Amino acid sequence: MIAYTVVVPTTGRDSLQALLSALGHGMGPRPAEIIVVDDRPEPGDLPLPELATPVRVLRSGGRGPAAARNAGWRAAGTEWIAFLDDDVRPTADWASRLESDLAALAADVAGSQGRIVVPGPTGGRRPTDLERDTAGLATAEWITADMAYRRDVLAAVGGFDERFPRAFREDADLALRVRQAGWRLERGIRTTLHPARHGGFFASVRAQRGNADNALMRRKFGPQWRELTAAGPGRLGRHTLTTLSGLAALACAAARRPTPAAFAGIAWLGLTAEFALRRILPGPKTPEELAKMAVTSVLIPPVAVRHRLAGELRVRRPRPAAKAVLFDRDDTLVHDEPYNNDPERVRPVPGAEEVLRRLRAAGVPVGVVSNQSGVARGLITPDELAAVNARVEELLGPFATWQVCVHAEDDGCCCRKPKPGLVTRAALALGVRPQDCVVIGDIGADVEAARAAGARAVLVPTPRTRPAEIAAARRDAQVAGDLAGAVGLAMGDRAW
Questions:
Q1: Which fold has domain 324-490?
Q2: SUPFAM superfamilies given for it (predicted)?
């Protein structure tokens, strides 16, 4: 039997009790534990049904579902973590099908997604705009409404990125980082019901806050993030054009330029009408729905653009100085001697001793994250590797942590860069979050390992760094000409 824990973040919705009851009375193997994470800023009573399965309640302080899920899986002790939202209803055979899903997975599969079913409206009524939006969850990829992950994979990539404050994109971000780190994800056969969402008149306007999260996705994964996550093209371009047309019409009218104001107004009206009709035609066309679509179609474009601009400004704001700096060893701190087993051949790169001295003097922990596959290949013994690393410390001073992968490329470990294991283990050893670390290295694998762990990265190219790696780092990370410049970027000071 496969051991698993169910983690449910909640804001105290009434639907939580129905979810827990379904888990407690379904067929199949019971979870080892159900962890409910109360994410209300000021937790109150949280009535829970009596179940045979242990239920533990944790608090996450209103920091959002990403932080709540992190609190849940980190407290769990099982191999698998099954995430469910508090407004879903697993079917009676969910547990038995989950066991079948997980038992069938190969070792390189990190997670399994359940099949989401969104019940449609009854009585032949057409779905409202909000109901159609919920129905899109049935085809969405890797959403945590029902998603199970291996716990060691979550630990390897650092879990959910807590910079996503809403239940939006945080699951796609995690799935993309897991896949970039070399694991696969598969769909299972279990089924979970997700009732259609219901909200007030301006629910669709409030939903535009997610555009700020899209800015973070673009910052992390580049312009191709929508293709990588199958998110679809979006409407931000049209919303921007609509907003600019409306602003131009107002500006020209204020300047008493009637002809340009009329042209801009006609453009705004046409774009707004197209957007409204796109939302009205598939719907029920009741007076309430028509009024809602007309009003919100006017409001959504400028609100969406405002949130996107706010998100872009936030993610481009200079990041605070690193709380820890992690260095690749070969060709970053010391000149590369392939499969070096001789301490006498260790030669620091120019400037290494000085920047490390300054970091230590500033109280910034420093560590090493290094692939050393020569051990697995039989070209270096563990004692020889230890002697070479000791010589590095003799020449450059002590490091607060050494995280070394001795596996070969085909061993399937979780630590070899570009996988994130070395970075996340180093952050844990230093008592900081991966996102507060900066990884400095000379090849693309260093940058990719940092990104997969949620850390920042600075590339210091050498003659063996491929041009494509440099171009990718310029887009997704930072590039420095030397070690001093890299540490300057890490500490927010180019003159370091």
A1: Rossmann fold (3.40.50)
A2: HAD-like, Nucleotide-diphospho-sugar transferases
